[in-house]
Amino acid sequence: MFDAAQFVTHVRQWARDLGLSQIGVAGVDLRDAEPGLLAWLEAGFHGEMDYMARHGLKRARPAELVPGTISVVTARMDYLPARRTDDWRAEEWARLERPLEAVVSLYARGRDYHKVLRQRLQKLAERMQQALPAQDADGFAYRVFTDSAPVLEVELAQRSGIGWRGKHTLALDRDGGSMFFLGEIFVNVALPTTVAVSSHCGACTACLMACPTGALVGPYRLDARRCISYLTIEHAGPIPVPLRPLMGNRIYGCDDCQLVCPWNKFARRTPLPDFDERSGLSGSRLVECFLWSETEFLQRTEGTPIRRIGHERWLRNVAVALGNALATGLAPADAVQVTQALQSRAEHPSPLVREHVSWALQQALRSST
Q1: Environment class of residue 85 by beta-carbon count within 10 Å: exposed (0-12), middle (13-18) or buried (19+)?
Q2: Which of 65, 211, 249, 290 is the right S-S partner for 318, CB 3.0 to 4.6 Å?
Q3: Which domain holds residue 160?
Q4: Averaged pLDDT, 1-19
Q5: Which string of DSSP letters, residue by residue, matches 225-290?
């Protein structure tokens, strides 16, 4: 006789063997999450991420997304690099105070998490199938997700005990903060759900206050159109001019709401070398990044999530950061170097790049007013 509870215990062990940090199980009834999802879409907070509106309520209905789904196995994978010190948050804040340093979000400095997590979830699902009784294994169906489809990941994580939804909208865990990825395996087998986690944000509003662009318009409400992660990654067009000075030297993503979160003092290091920080994506100078040719960009970002934005958007992002550096009042030699780098792209074939370069060159005036 199939013992579902014992099976989940085995799944947890197999997951640990694969480098996953935590496993939970959620049901598929997410109806009470639908009003919040609809309100978020109706407010236009999804910006240009049209696929979110296109999928609509399917995000809150796993059994419609993958017919036959009965349970969702949720997974957490920590990504804080193993070699980071206990002062890693202070180190990251310090990067933001160095205007000529290119700051890439921590999660993106190593291998693309989509590939790392998806491969391990695939192996876990295959191991699950092998362990099922023959009569169940033959009809076992599953589908793996890693931020790759209309899935309410944080909602499922909360319901399955992985963590609660923080006021910055990310999943939070008392013993691990928020420096982790989420993934899911939709299965057509009934498994016992794990206990949901209650919120422990209390009266804290540190993340709301820390957001550089005011994208967190209220607790649990993110206007993606103002979010630096959205602007530097998902947004394809010109970055709104009023938001450019607020981006500082962040060229891919933003970690501020996580850096300020008290729970991230408990963030766990990953045992996986995949997320070690690559040379060139941690501590590099903006000028160096701006002068990468498209070939060099593709080579240096191969296997990372950064590659998906392409060279054009990379230059757009770095141009904004260079303009912000000029506005700080750089030493003369540094100002000359930045100006020369920007001027080298002033006639770039892309109108998007040219416009941001032009804006950046004008920012030297801000430092003298």
Answers
A1: exposed
A2: 290
A3: 1-82+110-237+257-276
A4: 93
A5: GG-HHIIIII--SPPPGGGGGGGTTEEE---HHHHS-GGGGGPPBPS-GGGSPPTTSSS-BHHHHH
Query: In the numeric block, which tokens belong to residue 257?
Result: 């709401």
Residues annotated catalytic, as ranges? 147
Q: Facing residues of 143 across strands?
A: 186
Tokens coding 154: 């944080």
Contact status, residue 146 vs residue 114, Cβ threshold 8 Å: yes
Domain total of the chain: 1
Give 147's pLDDT tier (boundaries 50, 70, 90). Answer: confident
Q: Check: CB of residue 47 under 8 Å from CB of residue 228.
A: no
Q: Encoding tokens for residue 157?
A: 């994580």
Q: How far apart are CA 133 and CA 131, in angstroms?
A: 7
pLDDT at 159 (0 to 100): 93
Residue 59 has pLDDT above 90, yes or no: no
Q: Is 304 a member of any domain?
A: no
Residue 200, exposed/middle/buried by CB under 10 A (0-12, 13-18, 19+)? Answer: middle
In angstroms, the CA 134 to CA 139 distance is: 9
Instruction: Determine contact, residues 96/248, Cβ cutoff 8 Å.
Output: yes
In a domain, 100, yes or no: no
User: What was the pLDDT predicted at 55?
Assistant: 60
Local structure of 164: helix, strand or coil: strand
Amino acid at 55: H
pTM: 0.92
Residue 190 reports pLDDT greater than 70 = yes
Mean pLDDT of the chain, nearest integer: 92
In a domain, 15, yes or no: yes
Half-sphere exposure of 107 (CA within 13 A, CB side): 22
Tokens of 108: 């993106």
* Stretch 307-336: mean pLDDT: 97
Residue 31 counted as domain residue: yes
Among 367, 357, 246, smallest CA distance to 291 is for 357
- Residue 134, pLDDT > 70, answer yes
